[in-house]
Design a protein that fits this description.
Strand order of the largest sheet: 1-3-2
Number of strands: 5
Number of helices: 5
Order of helices and strands: HHEHHEEHEE
Largest sheet: 3 strands, antiparallel
Length: about 120
């Protein structure tokens, strides 16, 4: 088993990402994967997921490429990722709040409920 190094930056965003994943019905264990994807966002705030990136993420998280594929599919299904094209995704705006935590600022999200839906937004 691969030993993942302690990362103080991950600790800054861990609770936020875990809570966000739980609210969307995704295992909180995927928080590290989301954290490791943040640096790969391009200037348009898109992430290009190809074989090379999956290999990098697998090494950094200790997850298999299959688990990474399944998680990306699930994140798209629950709305945290928006599939723009094959292998190209946009983060939900609330995921960008994690960047504020990395800069030692405060991250906020607002949750609104109606009879049938839950809406998670940022300011």
């Amino acid at each position: 088993m691969l030993k993942i190094e302690h990362n103080p930056d991950f600790e800054k965003v861990q609770l936020f990402l875990e809570d966000l994943l739980i609210l969307h019905g995704v295992s909180k264990n995927m928080a590290l994967l989301l954290f490791e994807m943040i640096p790969y966002l391009n200037p348009q705030n898109h992430i290009i997921v190809n074989a090379y990136l999956k290999k990098e993420l697998a090494m950094k998280t200790g997850m298999s490429k299959g688990t990474i594929d399944n998680t990306i599919t699930k994140l798209n299904e629950v709305g945290l990722f928006d599939r723009l094209d094959r292998g190209t995704y946009a983060f939900h705006p609330v995921l960008h709040e994690a960047k504020k935590l990395l800069n030692n600022d405060t991250a906020k999200m607002e949750i609104s409920y109606t009879k049938q839906i839950r809406i998670i937004e940022t300011d």
